[in-house]
Design brief:
The protein is built from eight helices and no strands. The protein is mostly helical.
């Protein structure tokens, strides 16, 4: 279910550059399902969204980077579930998670794309540098979603799903 929702959210926001909700949905998947099942949901969601995207399938190295990159979101969610936390710690953790997970994903995909296209080291560095403004938008968008929306989602989850 989480994989389908993540892929659907990805398709819904596809026309908005560098703003996405897949990462947030998969973070919550890790929080609810645990590490192993959250990562499984991320792999399925990535294959559905990135692998079957109507804008065109991805090169295998890029698809692998996307799967590996997005798998960090449920890992961060599962880790949060195991932490004892207060509200300030929750917001700090969510903000840092958004930044770290997004940087990880963008770094992997911004290296995999030029590798897939046969670029040399210089080409990879140029691609990374050119991607910085887009990554900053991606980081800002994910951080806003994580800090403004996820706390309300977790409050509902915590009410209906027992901890532990």
């Amino acid at each position: 279910m989480f994989a389908a929702v993540a892929a659907a959210v990805g398709y819904i926001l596809m026309s908005v550059p560098n703003i996405e909700g897949v990462t947030a949905v998969l973070f919550v998947a890790g929080y609810v399902l645990n590490f192993r099942l959250g990562v499984l949901a991320a792999v399925i969601a990535a294959l559905l969204y990135f692998g079957l995207n109507p804008q065109g399938g991805m090169f295998p190295p890029l698809l692998a980077a996307q799967v590996l990159g997005i798998a960090a979101a449920p890992i961060a969610g599962a880790t949060l579930r195991s932490l004892k936390r207060s509200n300030p710690i929750l917001y700090l953790y969510l903000g840092l998670s958004a930044v770290i997970v997004t940087i990880w994903y963008d770094l992997l995909t911004n290296i995999a794309f030029p590798l897939s296209a046969g670029f040399d080291f210089r080409g990879i560095m140029v691609t990374l540098a050119a991607g910085i403004p887009f990554s900053l938008i991606h980081i800002a968008g994910n951080t806003a979603v994580f800090v403004l929306i996820i706390p309300a989602v977790l409050k509902v989850v915590d009410r209906y799903i027992p901890s532990g």
